# Entry
Amino acid sequence: RRARLFVLTLGFSRKSVRLLTFTSSVQRWIELHEESFRRLGGAPRVVVLDNLREWVLKPDIYDPTLNPLYRDFLAHHGAVALPCRVADPDRKGKVESAIDHSQEAVHGLRFETMELAQAYLDRFDTRWADTRIHGSTKRQVAAMFAEEQPTLLPLPVEPFRSYRFSTRTVHLDGCVEIEAAYYSAPPG
# Structure
């Protein structure tokens, strides 16, 4: 099966976290963000988003509509979302180049399990991506990350408690249907 690649890249140091997944949902992307924040040892203050449907419901340059679950997740960590402009790939070049590096690293390789593929990407990060000299800054990524890590926001004590956000209709019998189960709605 083909896996999807999630890449979170810090803006100053260009330190990237690369995670693989088979599924794509708001819940799964939040789990990937949480895992990335844990691996980095903190959360960034601003998260620049591409306009993925799971994150941004209505892209707009001035007033984008974020998914409420994702917005609450970022608020839980003290971060703010900044969606990119539509059809403007130059705004997120740092993460795009990290994706290119990742795709080159696994190009043509096959793995028996997802865990083996993730372990390969983790070794790629520690042996090549973190030790390389970045082309724009002319400094090592790991050294720059050591400077950036103290500025990350501390992780909350409790993990984010996820919920499902949806609009439901109350049927004539006063029940609401959620995943083929019926629950009575409160009066009024």
Remarks:
- The CA atoms of residues 14 and 136 lie 10 Å apart.
- The beta strands are 4-9, 16-21, 46-49, 56-58, 65-66, 80-83, 175-178, 181-184.
